[in-house]
Amino acid sequence: MQFIDRADIQVAAGKGGDGMVAFRREKYVPAGGPSGGTGGRGGSVFMVAVESLQTLLDFQYNRIFKAQDGKRGAPKNMTGAGGDDRTIEVPCGTVVYDAETQAILADLVTPGQTFCVAKGGKGGLGNKCFLTNSNRAPDYAMPGGEGEHKFLRLELKLLAEVGIIGLPNAGKSTLISALSAARPKIADYPFTTLVPNLGVVRKPTGDGTVFADIPGLIEGAHEGAGLGYEFLRHIERTRLLLHLIDVTDEDPIANYITIREELKAYGRGLANRPQILAFNKVDAIDLESAEMDNLIARLQEISGSPILSISAVSRVGLDELMQQVWQKLDELNEKEAAELLAVAVS
C-alpha cells in the first residue's frame, strides 16, 4: 500500500431548497391563503477519524466531495426534504487545514471524532412565512441559502508514543523489526526506508505501545534536504524519542549533533522532547576498548544523558533499552497525571 500523508481536496455543502409560492384552493374553505412550504436544508460535509485507514491514499484519486442539495418547499405548507450529509473517513491523526488561510480547522485524533468542515445552506422561506395582517396574500418566497465551499489541505501525523530517529543507516528499521512484528525494508545502503513504519511493541503488562521508525534525517532536513522535511512532522505527536547513533560511523558524535540541530531548527518542541540515546551496532567493535569508553564519555558530556550500547541485529542490550523506554513512559504518565490533578485542584 502506498503511503500518502498529504492531500488537497475540495468540499461543498448542499444548497438549501427554495421556498415555494402556493395558495390553498380547497372546497368549503372560503379564505384559503398562502400555503407555500419552506425549502429543506442542504446537506453538510463531515469528517470522521477511523482506525481502519493508515494513509491518505484515497484522496489522490477522489478530491471533490459534495453533499446533497435540499429539496424545494411544497404546497400545503410542506417543508422540502433536507439534503443528505456527506461523511468523509480519514485516518486517526489527520490535521485539517483551510488551504486558503492555512488555519487549522480540526485535529482528528480519537477514533470516531467528527468535525463539520462545511455547513449546508438554509432552506428558503415559503410564502406562508410572510403572511401578515397587512399582506394577506404574499406572492413571493426566499431562495435557498448557498452551502459552504472550501479548499482543504489534509496532513497525516502518525500516532506513536515512541519515535525512532537517527541518520540514514543507523539501524532504525532493524530495531523496529527486532522489537515488533513490523517488517520494513532493510539494506546496507542509505534511505532504504522511504516512508514511516509503525510497529506495536508489547509491554511486560501485555499492553501494546506504538513505535514509529522515521526515515533517515540528514543535515538540512528542516529545509527540505533528503527525506526529513517530509516526515519530521510524524514525530510531533510522539512522547519519547529513541535516538540511534551508528557507533561504526566515522564521527558518531558529529552525527548526534547533526540530528539535535535539525530538531532545534524544525521547532515545535521536538528538541525538548525526552530522548533515550543509544549507540547501535556495538557487536561490530570492541566494547571494552578505550576508544569506546571515550565515545560514551564525550556523548554523555554533550547530551547530559546516559548512553546505552545495543545491537539491533544480534539483540545485544535490547532488554536494558526496553526497560529504559518503559520507565521513561511511566515517568511521563505520572508527570501528566500530576499536572492534570494540579489543574483540577486550582
Structural class: alpha/beta
Number of helices: 5
Average of the residue pLDDT scores: 84
The overall strand count is 14
* Percent of residues in beta strands: 15-25%
Biggest β-sheet: strands ordered side by side in the sheet: 10-11-9-12-13-14
**Approximately how much helix is present in the residues?**
10-25%
Oligomeric state of the chains?
A: single chain
Spans of 5+ residues with little confidence (pLDDT < 50)? 185-194, 220-228
The Rg value, from CA coordinates, equals 29 Å
Q: What letter string, H or E per element, gives the SSE order?
A: EEEEEEEEEHEEHEHEHEH
Could you give the distance between the termini?
49 Å
Large-scale geometry: rod-shaped
How would you characterize the overall build of this protein?
By secondary structure, this protein is an alpha/beta fold. It is 20% helix and 22% strand. The chain is built from five helices and 14 strands. The strands form three sheets. A six-stranded mixed sheet has the order 10-11-9-12-13-14, sandwiched between helices. Helix 3 links the parallel strand 12 and strand 13 (275-280). The longest helix is centred in the C-terminal third of the chain and has 28 residues, at 318-345. It is rod-shaped and about 110 Å long.
Question: How would you concisely characterize the structure shown here?
Answer:
With 346 residues, this protein is α/β, with parallel strands linked by helices. It has helices at 172-179, 228-231, 252-266, 290-303, 318-345; strands at 6-12, 45-50, 64-66, 86-91, 94-98, 104-108, 114-118, 149-156, 162-165, 197-202, 208-213, 240-246, 275-280, 307-309.
